[in-house]
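Training component of the fellowship. As part of building independent skills, the fellow (R.M.) carried out the full modelling exercise for a liganded target. The chosen ligand was zinc ion. The inputs are recorded below so that the supervisory panel can assess the work.
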Amino acid sequence: MDAIVKNFPVLDDTGRPTQKEAEEAVRVLLRWAGEDPAREGLKDTPSRVAKAYREIFGGYDLVAEDVLGRTFEEVSGYDDIVLEKDIPFYSHCEHHMVPIIGKAHVAYLPSGRVLGLSKIARVVDIYARRLQTQEAMTAQIAKAIDETLMPRGVAVMIEAEHLCMAMRGIKKQGATTLTTTFTGAFKNEPAEQVRFMTMLRGFK
Ligand SMILES: [Zn+2]
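Fellow's submitted model of the complex:
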C-alpha cells in the first residue's frame, strides 16, 4: 500500500508564489486558450481563480492526522462496524487538473475508540482537495484512519467520475471508477468484507 501513498509535502508559504504571480499564470492560460485577459468580463477572473485554487486545493494546508488525532471518543463497548457512506467529494486529477466527482464510503471496526462522525468526512476532504489519482486517495484515507485510530480494520471504497475521461480524450460520459482499500480484519476476513459490501448496498 505504501507505494501509492505519496507523502505529500505540506507547503509553507515560502514555497508558494505570490497571489500576483498566480494571477499572471492564469492570464497566460487564458491567452493559451485563445482569450483576451484584458476583456471586461475577464478583468477579475485571474484573482478569482487564484483565490478559488487556495480553496479547492486547501488540502495541502491540512494534515489528516491532526484532524483524527484529537477526536477519540470512548464508547460503551461498541465494537462493530461504523460505516460512513455516500460522503460526496470533489477532487482534481493530477494528470489534467480536471475535476473528479464522487462519493467515498468509509468503514472501520473500532478497537475501543471511535471517531467523531464529522471527522471521516473531513479526512476525505483533506485528500480530495489535492491533485489526486483515485487509487492514491483511497489508500491515503485508509492509511490515515488505520495509523491514527488503530482500529481492527478499515475499509474504503470510492466511486467517482473522472471528467478528464468525459470532457476530453476518449469522451466517455457516465463511466464510474471503483477503488477499494481494506486493512486489518477487512483485509484478512472475507466475511467482514462481505458485511461491508452488504451494509453499503443494502440500505439505499
Ligand atoms: Zn485526468
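The panel noted the following from the submitted structure. Helices lie at 19-33, 45-56, 64-69, 117-128, 134-149, 163-167, 184-188, 190-202. The beta strands are 72-74, 82-93, 99-109, 113-115, 131-132, 153-162, 177-182.
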